[in-house]
């Protein structure tokens, strides 16, 4: 019963709340970045506590949730994807930027500076790192490991993949049709990756690594002086 209650929250309640908030903008003053990061950590942390209670009640193990040690097979090989892919992605981005004309680079930098979501101080960056760990580890565990486990007996493996993917994609909120479509498609692909390998570890590393690399790169841009030297924005 606890399993189903948590699944109901993840599939219907949480995505509905996020969609509503993204469509109906609040008139309240916007919270600071640190406050938003802390709110995200708190929200995921409370949900993870509920997951621990559900697992204790139902007898689910870490392996049941995809956290078994990847000793061999696809789960082990797929760890090479983030280990090799993330550095290649970083250097590919650097190479692409090096080939851009100066005006295009300046335009890209201005877009970064215009974003209110990115950390600008060393304290915010540290808090963002913790937030990313909770997002990458927590949501993978909840939306891939837990929902697949609970929903598969009810709707089958691929039904669970679709439901979890749509729910997680919708949980990103709505900005435009392209954004929500990409969110849902990428969430479904992550769920497929989990089902095919039976391991969350490589997905967690990908989910943490990509936004963390992006945030660190943007932090350097945001803290760059005209002479190219970095400094801390207060």
Textual characterization of the structure:
The protein has one domain (2-222). By secondary structure, it is an all-alpha fold. Residues 226-234 have low confidence and may be disordered. 76% of the residues lie in helices and 0% in strands. The relative contact order is 0.15. The N and C termini lie far apart (49 Å). Helix 6 (122-155) runs antiparallel to helix 7 and helix 6 (122-155) packs across helix 8 (177-197). The radius of gyration is 19 Å and the shape is globular.
Describe the SSE topology:
Layout: H1 2-23, H2 33-58, H3 73-77, H4 80-99, H5 102-114, H6 122-155, H7 157-170, H8 177-197, H9 201-222
Helix pairs in contact: 1-6, 1-7, 2-6, 4-9, 6-7, 6-8, 6-9, 7-8
Poorly predicted spans? 226-234
Whole-angstrom Rg: 19 Å
Helix segment tally: 9
The fraction of residues in strands falls at under 5%
Shape: globular
Our count of domains comes out at 1
Biggest sheet statistics: none
Oligomer: single chain
End-to-end distance: 49 Å
Tally the beta strands. 0
Q: Round the mean pLDDT to the nearest integer and report it.
A: 88
Listing every helix as H and every strand as E from the N terminus to the C terminus, the arrangement reads: HHHHHHHHH
What is the helix content?
over 70%
Broad structural category: mainly alpha
Entry keywords:
single chain, 234 residues, mainly alpha, 76% helix, 0% strand, globular, disordered C terminus, protease, CPBP family intramembrane metalloprotease
Short structural description:
By secondary structure, the protein is an all-alpha fold. Helices cover 76% and strands 0% of the residues. It has one domain (2-222).
């Amino acid at each position: 019963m606890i399993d189903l209650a948590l699944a109901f929250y993840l599939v219907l309640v949480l995505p509905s709340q996020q969609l509503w908030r993204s469509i109906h903008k609040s008139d309240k003053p916007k919270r600071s970045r640190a406050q938003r990061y802390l709110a995200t950590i708190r929200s995921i942390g409370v949900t993870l506590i509920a997951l621990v209670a559900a697992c204790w009640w139902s007898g689910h193990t870490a392996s049941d949730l995809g956290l078994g040690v990847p000793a061999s097979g696809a789960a082990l090989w797929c760890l090479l994807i983030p280990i090799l892919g993330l550095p290649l992605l970083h250097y590919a981005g650097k190479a692409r930027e090096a080939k851009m004309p100066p005006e295009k680079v300046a335009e890209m930098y201005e877009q970064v500076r215009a974003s209110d979501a990115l950390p600008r101080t060393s304290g915010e960056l540290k808090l963002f790192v913790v937030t990313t760990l909770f997002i990458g580890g927590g949501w993978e565990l909840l939306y891939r490991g837990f929902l697949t486990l609970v929903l598969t007996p009810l709707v089958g493996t691929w039904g669970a993949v679709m439901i979890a993917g749509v729910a997680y994609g919708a949980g990103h909120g709505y900005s435009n049709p392209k954004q929500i479509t990409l969110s849902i498609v990428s969430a479904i692909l992550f769920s497929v990756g989990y089902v095919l390998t039976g391991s969350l570890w490589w997905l967690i590393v990908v989910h943490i690594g990509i936004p963390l690399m992006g945030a660190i790169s943007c932090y350097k841009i945001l803290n760059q002086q005209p002479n190219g030297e970095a400094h801390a924005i207060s």
